[in-house]
Design brief:
The complex is a heterodimer of chains A (71) and B (149). Chain A is mainly alpha-helical. In chain A, 54% of the residues lie in helices and 8% in strands. Chain A contains five helices and two strands. The longest helix of chain A is centred in the C-terminal third of the chain and has 11 residues. Chain A is globular and about 30 Å long. The model of chain A has no long low-confidence stretch (mean pLDDT 91). Chain B is mainly α and 149 residues long. Chain B has one domain. Chain B is built from five helices and no strands. In chain B, helix 1 packs antiparallel against helix 2, helix 1 packs antiparallel against helix 5 and helix 4 runs antiparallel to helix 5. Chain B starts with a helix and ends in a 9-residue tail after the last helix. The model of chain B has no long low-confidence stretch (mean pLDDT 91). Chains A and B meet through helix 3 of A and helix 1, helix 3 and helix 4 of B.
Chain lengths: 71, 149
């Protein structure tokens, strides 16, 4: 469980889309480090960044991010 | 590791050197100028201060050269993304506590007759350096190879 209370399926969805962290970072317009930290629950993204990530993965945001207590 | 991450790693080394250099510059200068310190420490303080200033000057120049390279390669919005801003915010927060603690310490020690200028130099050096160190510590939390869990 993430310390922030926010879970994500970025890794699986990214693999499904055939994207590396660097590819996704380029699509979103951030560094790979940002994608890495969000993916691993180190950093909680803003709503704007979460929406951009979801869009880059071609998924609705709730399929990519959800609250821990909803799992 | 791509070019941006290599630059980022080098900038972190530069930040640590800046922290060490700035602290040595200020603390060494404070010791050299202090009337409370033994005269034998004056020359050592001056040498430490000059070396610290040199290290700080070189590494701050290298830091901005690398920052310019990173800016030119991917643009400002990418190098100043959410994670980068979060690292700076957390580092500033950590440095704030160090500054508060140093101020309390300075006020306390000055009551025991320790020279104000010496305290100011040492504790200001420590406070500023703490921001650089905290930036490196927080930024390192973002390290991780592709797909690391």
């Amino acid at each position: 469980m993430s310390r922030s209370g926010l879970e994500n399926a970025m890794k699986a969805l990214r693999a499904e889309a055939g994207l590396t962290q660097a590819d996704l970072a380029a699509r979103v317009g951030v560094t790979r480090k940002t994608i890495n930290t969000v993916e691993n629950g180190v950093f909680t993204p803003s709503a704007l960044l979460a929406l951009k990530i979801a869009r880059a993965l071609g998924q609705p945001v709730e399929q990519v991010f959800w609250l821990s207590d909803e799992a | 590791m791509d070019q941006l991450e290599a630059l980022n790693a080098r900038m972190r080394v530069c930040l640590l050197c800046q922290a060490a250099g700035f602290f040595a510059w200020q603390a060494g200068g404070g010791v050299a100028a202090s009337e409370q310190m033994p005269a034998s420490l004056s020359a050592t303080g001056l040498i430490v201060s000059l070396l610290g200033f040199g290290l700080w000057l070189v590494t701050i120049s290298l830091y901005f050269m690398d920052a310019r390279r990173a800016y030119k390669s991917v643009g400002y919005d990418v190098i100043n993304d959410e994670w980068a801003r979060d690292v700076r915010r957390r580092a500033a927060e950590a440095a704030f506590w160090v500054i508060t603690l140093c101020t309390v310490l300075a006020m306390t020690l000055s009551n025991f007759g320790v020279e104000g200028a010496l305290l100011l130099k040492i504790l200001t050096g420590l406070s500023v350096s703490s921001f650089f160190v905290a930036t490196v510590v927080y930024d390192r939390r973002g390290e991780g190879e592709e797909d690391a869990a």
